[in-house]
Write a structure and sequence with these properties.
The complex is a heterodimer. Chain A is mostly beta strands. Chain A contains one helix and eight strands. In chain A, a hairpin with a 4-residue loop joins strand 5 and strand 6. Chain A is globular and about 40 Å long. The relative contact order of chain A is 0.21. Chain B is an alpha/beta fold. Chain B is 34% helix and 18% strand. In chain B, the strands form two sheets. Chain B has a nine-stranded mixed sheet, with helices on both faces. A two-stranded antiparallel sheet of chain B has the order 5-6. In chain B, helix 6 crosses helix 10. Chain B starts with 6 loop residues before the first strand and ends with a strand. The model of chain B has no long low-confidence stretch (mean pLDDT 97). Classes of the chains: A mainly beta, B alpha/beta. At the A-B interface, strand 4, strand 5 and strand 6 of A face helix 4, helix 5 and strand 5 of B.
């Protein structure tokens, strides 16, 4: 196993601070609009669908399926699997599939959230469930 | 209100260089501006509108000063590689509204000589930057899902590169002039699954420029008349992660807007310039523009159907970004230029489409699998 990859530290801002605080406790948060009921990711204070400001934080199950992926082989830091995964709650998001045999990844495969350390708050990734 | 027929492309210029370590980026902008102005038979003093994007050093104010222009209309819309297609549409709007009468659009830069500055980050940075989205893998993810949903194959994608290479052999300035086969493409190294090296465009220094003007001024000049009759623009992104679909682009929206304004359909098109940052870009755009149904792009592009004189939809007869030129990693400008050459009858005789009186120039900008824009221009020989 290669040395752990160094990931950038999330900069955070007043709008997203609760996400990173939760991440430090191992919780993966999404936002849900209480006006239209739609969840979204990455988190915004105003709903990107109905534009209501009645959005609330919600802990995600962290369970997802791979929507698509690509193994990036032309990388100075070694190959990595970029992907979009679709959360059980609905939203799809960009991530890397980590701690896995990258040649065995498949669209539709079940994955779950896993946090990786940075110099600040940890970052969410996904790994085969 | 429409821009249909209200603006003509009176001047075009594509810089012949593909590697320019001995020139500055601003200098390249000036050289392509000079080339387009001379092609039109005008002088710099005639220019009263200027359009540039993120590749222009210092932005629009600095470029206007550097070039020594005196203009009354400015636009620095930046949507990556399709900026110049959007500029063409916006120039037509400005001309139709009387805001300017002779607009200059320039693109230039040197990614082959040195690395490009990083993309500006938006609100998504903390939630995406760590995952290493690049052009290769952002387009790779689209191709992967397209194959999954529609059974598109690597062989079908390869035909797009093969067609581009057939055209590039006649372009003395093309970076890659060798004709390649489907097997050559399939045997090239995997870069980001399922895209191989030959699915990717070239990286080149260089640039290009346009002169857009009124019907009256265009008719007073000597070049064959080419006018814009329809324009569309749109953007697409993950939009909060709802109903993600990477198998279509914003071209699904920009295309119909342009065709509707022009009053023509994809069936009427004689030549298509379609942004070819990767083979998958072309395949998805052909579907989104309505040349075939969604999911049937693979079948459509196979067996040489994009080769001029052979297939039904001659495309990128200069060799496109896949073989000829992709200045500044922004392919929209050269798409317009080759479409104008075709409509003027100035393309290479081996690839010139007979009776070419209607063409589309279309492109995307940004990252197809993440956030991108698309713009479609319908051009007509007047």
């Amino acid at each position: 196993m290669a040395e752990a990859k160094k990931y950038p530290t999330p900069q955070g801002n007043p709008e997203t601070a609760p996400f990173w605080e939760a991440a430090r406790q191992g919780k993966f948060m999404i936002k849900r609009c209480t006006a239209c009921g739609e969840p979204h990711y990455f988190p915004r204070s105003i709903c990107p669908f109905c534009f209501s400001d009645k959005t609330v934080w919600e802990e995600s199950s962290g369970e997802a399926t791979i929507y698509t992926f690509s193994l990036m082989r032309k990388s100075a830091t070694g190959p990595y699997a970029i992907a979009y995964v679709t959360l059980k709650e609905g939203p799809s998001l960009q991530t890397n599939i980590v701690d896995c045999d990258m040649d065995k990844l498949e669209i539709g495969q079940k994955v779950k959230v896993v946090f990786k350390p940075t110099d600040g708050a940890p970052l969410p990734f996904f790994t085969p469930a | 209100m429409t821009i249909k027929g209200k603006a003509y492309i009176a001047g075009i210029y594509e810089h012949p260089t593909r590697h320019a370590p001995d020139k500055s980026t601003a200098q390249l902008h000036a050289e392509v501006a000079k080339g387009a102005i001379e092609d039109a038979g005008l002088t710099k003093a005639d220019i009263d509108g200027y359009f540039c994007a993120g590749d222009a050093p210092g932005g629009v104010m600095n470029m206007v000063d550097y070039l020594g222009l005196k203009v009354r209309h400015l636009d620095s819309t930046d949507t990556g590689g399709c900026s110049y297609l959007i500029h063409l549409g916006h120039a037509a709007e400005a001309i139709a509204a009387g805001k300017c009468s002779i607009a200059l659009v320039t693109l230039a830069g040197k990614p082959r000589t040195g690395p490009m500055p990083p993309r500006a980050a938006g609100a998504e940075a903390d939630f995406e930057a760590a995952y290493g989205a690049t052009t290769h893998n952002a387009y790779g993810m689209c191709a992967m899902r397209h194959m999954h949903d529609y059974g598109t194959t690597s062989e079908q994608l390869a035909w797009i590169k093969v067609a581009a290479s057939h055209h590039a052999q006649y372009n003395p300035h093309a970076m890659l002039k060798e004709v390649v086969t489907v097997e050559d493409v399939l045997n090239s190294p995997m870069i980001s699954d399922p895209l191989r090296r030959m699915d990717c465009c070239v990286v080149t220094d260089g640039g290009g420029a346009l002169i857009v003007t009124t019907p009256e001024i265009a008719k007073s000049l000597k070049k064959p008349l080419v006018r814009l009759i329809g324009h569309g623009e749109a953007t697409k992104g993950p939009r909060g992660g709802k109903d993600l679909d990477l198998t279509h682009s914003a071209g699904l929206w920009s295309g119909p807007r342009a065709f509707e304004e022009a009053g023509v359909t994809p069936k009427d098109i004689k030549y298509a310039s379609i942004y070819d940052s990767f083979t998958i870009t072309v395949l998805m755009q052909i579907e989104d523009l309505g040349f075939c149904k969604k999911g049937e792009g693979g079948k459509f592009v196979a067996d040489g159907n994009l080769i001029s004189g052979v297939g039904k939809l001659p495309f990128n007869t200069d060799g496109g970004g896949l073989c000829s030129n992709h200045p500044v990693n922004r392919g929209g400008m050269t798409k317009i230029i080759e479409a104008v050459r075709q409509l003027r009858g100035e393309a290479h005789p081996k690839v010139q489409v007979k009776n070419c009186d209607l063409a589309v120039a279309h492109g995307t900008g940004g990252l197809l699998g993440v956030r991108h824009a698309a713009s479609t221009c319908i051009l007509e020989r007047a």
